Every structure is written in C-alpha cells, then in structure tokens.
Write a sequence for this structure.
C-alpha cells in the first residue's frame, strides 16, 4: 500500500478563519512533507518533518503552522490566510536512508476568499 | 535561481511516437532524480527514478537517460498513448541519508494526439 490520504479534498475559507489540513500515511515512513502547488506550476516545498521533528522550513509565512503528532499524521494549521494562498496543498511521505521515493497524496484544493 | 531546468514547456506527439523531455541541473550535490506524472486535480505520481551511478534505466515504455558530466537527464516515453497525456515534472534531491525536499522542474504539458 503506497497511499497517502489527505482531508479535506476541498476547502473554502475567509481571511479571518482558522482551519487545518490533515495528512495520513501507514507505510511506516519517517519523513513527511508539505508542498504548495499553484496552477500550472510545480510543487514548492514548504516543510519537512523527519522523525516527527521539523527539519526543513522553507521560510514559509507564520500564518502556516505545521504539526506532526506522530509518525503517521501530519497537519497544516491555517490562520489569517491571504487570497494569494489559494492553491493545491500536497502532502508526501518517504522512507529514510534506504528508499527515498516520495509518495504524494491527492492534495487539498484551498480557496481563500 | 532555478536549480532544475526543464524543457520543453509543452509537447504534442502523435500516438505511437516517442515523447522526449529534458532536464538539466546545477547543484552537484543532487543524487536522486525522479520523474513524476500529474493528471489534472491529482497529486504527482512517481513514474521512474535514477541515481547518478547509472546512465540509463528502463521501466516498460519509460526510460531515463542520465549524463552526469553534462548534468542532464531525460525521459523517453516509447509508443506514446493518449492516456499518457499529462504534466510531467523532473525533480532532484540530495539525500545524504536524511530527508530532503524535492526541487522540481517547471513541468512539461504533454498531449498525445490519437
């Protein structure tokens, strides 16, 4: 099973709302990632968690707050977003040290009004 | 600074033909080069990947050619089919035994005409 699941599939929020995106994998992977993808653009790395610890933060605005409660779950908390934050948010996971393949979830399509 | 350059931006190939997409990288620390296929509204799916110690890797109709000295790699899709119509991204990362995010090329929108 190489499945990464993400919820919700779609999300519409106002600029004053607080919402969370969720990601889950059961492949025993110890690295998890958040990417942001704008239309007709490649995914851009936001955060990397390695063994549930934040290891890479690509200077993402503080209105995005990641959380890794355990090795299978990854959350992205959203607060006071801007319309330009509307995008497809992708979660991925990979094994460490042996197999580096990153498996992506289907993404959450976010619209900020 | 774009670390992975991908071309062409779009490509139209007749059914049964060969689709070729090229990528070039700058960071010599990169040691893992995957290709991803993405359909509209879906997440990227790994197609095939290569490491610098191999010059070519083939899986079914998909082949990666890798030129370490030129810092270039390419994807060849043989006998292209309409179902191959999608956006293709090359990517690179430096594993160094730990987690590292992928640096993607800008993508190639491939259309296979029946």
């Amino acid at each position: 099973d190489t499945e990464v699941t993400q919820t919700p599939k779609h999300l519409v929020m106002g600029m004053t709302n607080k919402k969370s995106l969720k990601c889950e994998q059961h492949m025993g992977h110890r690295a998890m990632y958040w990417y942001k993808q704008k239309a007709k653009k490649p995914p851009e790395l936001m955060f990397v968690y390695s063994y549930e610890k934040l290891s890479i933060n690509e200077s993402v605005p503080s209105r995005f707050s990641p959380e890794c409660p355990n090795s299978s779950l990854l959350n992205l908390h959203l607060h006071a977003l801007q319309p330009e934050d509307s995008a497809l948010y992708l979660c991925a996971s990979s094994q460490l040290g042996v197999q580096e393949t990153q498996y992506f979830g289907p993404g959450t399509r976010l619209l900020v009004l | 600074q774009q670390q992975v350059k991908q071309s062409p931006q779009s490509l139209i190939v007749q059914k049964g033909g060969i689709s070729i997409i090229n990528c070039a990288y700058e960071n010599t620390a990169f040691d893992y080069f995957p290709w991803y296929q993405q359909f509209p509204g879906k997440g990227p799916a790994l197609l095939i990947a290569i490491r610098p110690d191999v010059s070519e890797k083939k899986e079914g109709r998909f082949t990666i050619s890798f030129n370490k000295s030129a810092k270039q790699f390419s994807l060849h899709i043989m006998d292209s089919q309409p179902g191959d119509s999608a956006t293709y991204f090359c990517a690179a990362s430096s594993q160094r035994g730990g987690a590292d995010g992928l640096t993607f090329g800008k993508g190639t929108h491939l259309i296979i005409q029946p």
Remarks:
- The first strand of chain A starts at residue 4 and ends at 7.
- Chain A has a mean pLDDT of 91.
- Residues 90 and 107 of chain A are 4 Å apart (CA to CA).
